[in-house]
Design goal:
Two copies of one chain form a homodimer.
Chain A: H1 30-36, H2 44-51, H3 54-65, E1 75-79, H4 85-92, E2 97-102, H5 106-116, E3 123-127, E4 139-144, H6 157-167, E5 168-175, E6 178-186, H7 190-216, H8 224-235, E7 240-242, E8 254-260, H9 266-270, E9 271-279, E10 284-300, E11 303-312, E12 325-336, E13 341-350, E14 358-367, E15 373-383
Parallel strand pairs in A: 1-2, 1-4, 2-3, 4-5
Antiparallel strand pairs in A: 6-8, 6-10, 7-12, 9-13, 10-11, 10-12, 13-14, 14-15
Helix pairs in contact in A: 7-8
Biased composition (Low complexity) (chains A, B): 1-12
EC number (chains A, B): 2.1.1.319
Keywords (chains A, B): Methyltransferase, S-adenosyl-L-methionine, Transferase
Chain lengths: 384, 384
């Protein structure tokens, strides 16, 4: 039974001890987590992809170099250093000492890069999970690029929280300092395309099923329904990476989550619940929803940034980040009018099978501007 | 750090207790094995792909129904039943009782399929690793479709051996009974294409490296060599799935492994060593090597098949199986002449990181028909 597909793993991150008062799921087995998540980050081509994201790079570069006061003579912890880029910038910006923690063998490359750039006296690369390693001191700054699709995929912020609670001085600053999640109604040809793909898959199943019956004497019809469910999940219910054009956003983007990186807890990101309203901006077709995030580098109230920097992954004419946006499609697009109100409910939680993947329950009630109810629907999606 | 790639896992199989007198590697953690391997098999679309392979299906169907004497009134164990197809055929061919073992939740679908086809009194679906489950009796037949790319990728035969040693009666029969691995010199545009891809990746790296230096003040050159090694491994050293045309086979196919499924041990498949000679059949270019396998259903000497059946994955004009062939490319193709002799050395062993993946050391000495040495080379490949 030859197969070329690569199991069910995704790219991901370190198991975090789940803090907070609610009962925690059992800690993730580290080897399983590695097989499921970390391993992609040990490849240079993957680091290169992220280093090639100019929007991402510019934001962090400017955040550091426009705010040297946070770095000069200070101590820094880079959580998930990868190639070491943020640690290197922190040192170049004047840090006295930088601890660059990386769970995978990419740490070896980070160490080489640090040395090749003459910074080995400042940057110490430590291979390990940030939850497991020990530092000789607390730090003034925690810098990390931890954001996944729709902000929270990969659940890497758990590790940043863990690092912050153990290693950040009471006066310390988080880079980035804040994060937000956005959701907007969109039009997109993806809905039709995925619906067609699904129909095609089911037509193909019908032919297949007939052939197995004719040639091999086995009735497969009992598996038609489970196959349809599996394909529905794959084609319709799995969030799609997309680079949306702003013209596809057909109503007000809504803020579904705001997070202060200095105070956020795992509890508040384990389950994200939000009720928001979006107003349609024209006569068009509602095909689904787009989700994205932004982060800000504002420092802290007592020690603010001199230059606020924002990294946004919102739909843009000119910019595309490697995060794209996540599209949640509707198999049955709905005609909408300017002024229609969408009452949106979102509940995002972690997949039981893999805490680094998300389940998203989206509900939508459409009302005319007059208040007359139009349509409503509810669907569960998966960010895989 | 968003990433869509799916970790480093592959499709795969149950951890086998590694038998034999040599020291064994530590048993594979089951959850890691699931994350790395098994999980793909729990999807119906993947089972459908295999069930849609007519060559595979016809071979097993004919093997069973042309040899009912092995099944009528007998007991059968299907190792890795998947959708249950082989178990169902065994029952339809007259088996008294069939134990269908499946490690993943596909077992639920197998059970439904058995019932929908009226065979629940004969076929008992058991979810679990065949190494772990218990049967109430030994069986007359072990049937299994365990073959991976180049026969041994996935290392599933370990589980068949384990099942055979525990559950096959002394008089029992293996389906299939024999297996062979073949290697042949080939011509292929893949070599040039992959070489171009590699060159392109390195040119892209150079641009990238220049940009990181100009825009971000970091010298990446120390990572050029590791990046090149990683890309060489990816583009050149990773065996490529291909559907070879017989005209691409430019020399005698050589038999690198023969296996009797009734007596094979894990030791003999953990490392496959072979020295063979192939003779070039015309004036052409040696671009690499193609590997494939075949299996036979011959029964056993004391209880042979009435109709020998063969399932071959050799290059064919008319047939293509989902296994294809595995191509080991040469970055520097060599001109060869009719009558040139290729002395080939092959050593195939399991990857230390994942016992279900293979490392292949290929060496080749080319001599003219006259005996004059021409060229030789040696390369390590990876079957991922």
């Amino acid at each position: 039974m030859g197969s070329s597909s690569n199991g069910g793993a995704m790219s991901g991150r370190a198991p975090g001890t789940v803090g907070g008062v609610k009962s925690s799921p059992p800690p993730v087995d580290k080897e399983v987590d590695y097989a499921n998540y970390f391993c992609t980050y040990s490849f240079l081509y993957h680091q290169k992809d992220m280093l090639s994201d100019r929007v991402r790079m510019d934001a962090y570069y400017n955040a550091v170099f426009e705010n040297k006061h946070h770095f000069v003579g200070k101590t820094v912890l880079d959580v998930g250093t990868g190639s070491g880029i943020l640690a290197i910038w922190s040192a170049q910006a004047g840090a006295r000492k930088v601890y660059a923690v990386e769970a995978t063998t990419m740490a070896d490359h980070a160490r080489a890069l640090v040395k090749a750039n003459g910074l080995e006296d400042i940057v110490e690369v430590i291979q390990g999970s940030v939850e497991d390693i020990s530092l000789p001191e607390k730090v003034d700054v925690i810098i990390s690029e931890w954001m996944g699709y729709f902000l929270l995929r990969e659940s890497m912020f758990d590790s940043v929280i863990s690092a912050r609670d153990r290693w950040l001085k009471p006066t310390g600053v988080m880079y980035p300092s804040h994060a937000r999640m956005w959701l907007a109604p969109i039009k997109s040809t993806l809905s039709d395309r995925k619906k067609n793909d699904l129909d095609g898959a089911m037509a193909d199943w019908d032919n297949f099923s007939d052939e197995i019956k004719s040639y091999y004497g086995v009735d497969m019809s009992v598996l038609t329904k489970p196959f349809a469910q599996e394909q529905e999940k794959h084609y319709i219910q799995t969030a799609v990476w997309n680079d949306l054009n702003p013209l596809q956003v057909i109503g007000t983007p809504t803020l579904v989550k705001e997070m202060d990186c200095l105070t956020a807890t795992v509890s508040e990101i384990e389950e994200v619940r939000s009720n928001v309203t979006s107003v349609i901006n024209g006569h068009t077709t509602l095909c689904g929803f787009g989700g994205w995030f932004d982060v800000q580098f504002r420092g802290r109230k007592e020690d603010p940034a001199q230059q606020d920097i924002e990294l946004t992954t919102a739909p843009s004419e000119r910019h595309c980040t490697h995060w794209g946006q996540q599209v949640f499609i509707m198999s049955n697009p709905i005609n909408v009018e300017e002024g229609d109100n969408l009452n949106l409910g979102l509940v995002m939680s972690r997949s039981k099978e893999n805490h680094r993947l998300m389940e998203v329950e989206l509900s939508c009630e459409i009302k005319e501007a007059s208040g007359n109810p139009k349509e409503s629907f509810k669907k569960t999606y998966f960010i895989e």
